[in-house]
């Protein structure tokens, strides 16, 4: 299986401050990576760097053969990045339907997952029935969970090669967490979309991921299969520094 994403010796941060130092990660096509670590270890900086929202000091990022580190922020969606940041970044003054149709890109053979139908607003409504019920509501009228669903839907209708989810379960009610986990599992397992997920609920995310990497002080301190880490709770506790 060919590698979709290759990150080699990556150093990046904000201004002159270096947060990531020598990070290397490889993700195969159709696989999901759980990116774990304590707060402040560089997880969000890594995601922001893939999306183009930090200053890169060294190293390279290659997405499906394209030198992503040379691609400006405003062109990374076209290069195949679907980014759901912690802030969600939905248009609160637009309706749910307008949020989706404003950014939708047609699925193209060179970007869509082989054998999977292109993502359209209609398919997002099928994935998240709550959004279908609120398609005429403004973004500002949605609950936190509904806003997160919309943020995921906005990333999907870009028909990306790689989906970046930065703490998608943060601050949500348990019933919404389970709904989102089922949706993410469908997107990755059934649809075969490659994804990187940053999350503070490691066991929930490891259960739907293929690979796992743990960051500490801006470097990768553990890499392996998600199942192996899930099966070693003592190691997981040691790496994260908190009993889970």
From TrEMBL:
What SMART domains does the record tag this protein with?
AAA
Q: Which domain of life is it from?
A: Bacteria
Which Gene3D superfamilies does this one have?
P-loop containing nucleotide triphosphate hydrolases
Would the keyword Signal turn up in this protein's UniProt record?
Answer: no
Give residue ranges for domain ABC transporter.
5-242
Q: Which CDD domains match?
A: ABC_TM1139_LivF_branched
Q: Which UniProt keywords apply?
A: Amino-acid transport, ATP-binding, Cell membrane, Membrane, Nucleotide-binding, Transport
Q: Which GO terms describe its biological process?
A: L-amino acid transport
Presence of keyword Transport: yes
GO molecular function, one example? ATP hydrolysis activity
Question: InterPro entries under this entry?
Answer: AAA+_ATPase, ABC_transporter-like_ATP-bd, ABC_transporter-like_CS, BCAA_Transport_ATP-bd_LivF, P-loop_NTPase
Give the similarity note.
Belongs to the ABC transporter superfamily.
PANTHER family registered for this protein in UniProt: ABC TRANSPORTER ATP-BINDING PROTEIN (PTHR43820:SF2), HIGH-AFFINITY BRANCHED-CHAIN AMINO ACID TRANSPORT ATP-BINDING PROTEIN LIVF (PTHR43820)
Q: What is this protein called?
A: ABC transporter ATP-binding protein
Q: What species is this protein from?
A: Hylemonella gracilis str. Niagara R
């Amino acid at each position: 299986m060919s590698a979709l994403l290759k990150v080699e010796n990556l150093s990046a941060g904000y201004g002159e401050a270096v947060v990531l130092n020598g990070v290397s990660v490889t993700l195969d096509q159709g696989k999901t990576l759980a990116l774990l670590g304590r707060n402040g270890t560089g997880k969000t900086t890594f995601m922001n760097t893939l999306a183009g929202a930090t200053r890169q000091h060294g190293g390279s990022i290659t997405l499906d053969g394209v030198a992503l580190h040379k691609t400006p922020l405003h062109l990374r969606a076209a290069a195949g990045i679907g980014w759901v940041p912690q802030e969600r970044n939905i248009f609160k003054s637009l309706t749910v339907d307008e949020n989706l149709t404003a950014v939708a890109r047609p699925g193209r053979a060179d970007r869509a997952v082989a054998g999977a139908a292109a993502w359209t607003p209609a398919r997002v409504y099928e994935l998240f029935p709550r959004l279908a019920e609120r398609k005429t509501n403004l973004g500002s009228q949605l609950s936190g969970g509904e806003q997160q669903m919309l943020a995921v839907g906005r990333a999907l209708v870009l028909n990306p090669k790689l989906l970046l989810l930065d703490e998608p379960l943060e601050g949500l009610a348990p019933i919404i967490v389970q709904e989102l986990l089922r949706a993410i599992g469908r997107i990755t397992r059934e649809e075969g979309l490659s994804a990187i997920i940053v999350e503070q609920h490691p066991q929930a995310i490891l259960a739907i991921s293929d690979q796992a990497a743990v960051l500490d002080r801006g470097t990768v301190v553990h890499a392996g299969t998600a199942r192996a880490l899930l099966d070693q709770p003592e190691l997981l506790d040691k790496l994260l520094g908190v009993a889970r």
